[in-house]
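Table S5 (text form). Sequence records supplied for joint modeling of the two-component complex.
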Amino acid sequence: MANMNLVLNVWRQKSANAPGQFVRYEAKGISDHMSFLEMLDVVNEQLIERGEDPIAFDHDCREGICGACSLMINGQAHGPRQQTTTCQLHMRSFKDGDELTIEPWRAAAFPVLRDLIVDRSSFDRIIQAGGYISVRTGAPRDANEILVPKTDADESMDAAACIGCGACVAACPNASASLFTAAKLGHLGLLPQGQPERMARTRNMVSQMDREGFGHCTNHGECEHACPKGISVAFIARMNRDYLKAMATQPVERDNDDG
Amino acid sequence: MQKALTLLDTTVGKKAVMALTGLVWFGFLVGHMLGNLQVFLGPEKLNAYAQGLKALGPLLWGARLTLAAALLLHVWAAFSLVGRSVAARGQPYRVKKNPATTYAALTMRLSGPLIMLFLLYHLAHFTIPGVAMSSSYTHDHNDVYANVIHGFSVPWVAALYVLAQLALGLHLFHGAWSALQTFGLSHPRYNVLRRHAAQGIAGLIVLGNLTIVIAVQAGLIK
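The corresponding structure-token record, covering 481 residues in total, follows.
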């Protein structure tokens, strides 16, 4: 088991409105079997022993499925490995003596709450604007009653892999939430159950995305590269196509748009 | 629930304006290059082509006004979106890597204004007598062929055109690929081809234009 010593430059910020700055820490005796978050846990234990405030960072499942962990590591969302969340990133991706800069996601729509934790409720509001289907309740229906072509089901599942972590926004040079919004739209818009509200959903979710203050998509493809689930920018093309179609056919809300 | 934004208030709508007006100019550039390549057919052909364009009268002015309107809308969309993009990031990163994107994509905000400046210079070069022609030659509205030869025989002018074409090539490559995304023209079977198609058409326009400048400098056409 190889141990390494690292230097960390970590963004520290007491609260949402307080000014922040980078603070230099030494992480000594880090095992290369540790995950990136376990490495931060070790640093925090040392900080607590010294009577200092531990570094605040988001985490939950620590197995790459919840979307809570974030961190911009040396200029890359979730660090240098593709299709990997920060919690799945192992310290063997780094070497002894490395100097790491750890920053929170930077976007006006993701304000910093404390240290490395940002408020991602703007994503929740995009979902609230249309990221659902309306279903009447009643007697249970037969399984497989609605047929779904295999290719559509597969593509929809590719989009549904989105865990809403916000790496796409963090990596985008324009801080655009296009990949997130497009993934949610593609997930529902490819399935038969998503069809009745498809146009209204697209129009409303795109509107909410823009209202939150995210940037526009300039097709750099940084989002796809940073996405821990490898979601394709083809979904953004699909969102744009559906949005232009929606504005041509249903530019204003109708009474039955309860979305 | 708030009302949905109107088309031009959304970033997707503004991008559609950007893509549509960009395509108008794309069409113009293809025609402009093909028309000008007639310089290789000799003075009579090129000058007759120029006379033919002038004879179009109102149609020509219609095309000019369409291009001017498209340019204004393109610039409006650019300013509106770039301002948004800067505000959307807020505090910049201390370290930021962009492993996926291209040089062309990252420099759109630079190549755009450069092409605009070049366009103004290019218009002045071939319409206002006395702008950057070889010495002892005076601009002649009826002899397009001679204007081209004398205009491009000045070395620094030729160099300027070559540089401008490179900026144009970068802008067109990312613009073409980006427009396909904006219009949602995406299909798993053809997505690999989209980048090549964008590179190909941008490359053809640039190469076509450059052959004229290079041919004059090399003395292949006189």
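Note: Chain B has one domain: 7-92+101-217.
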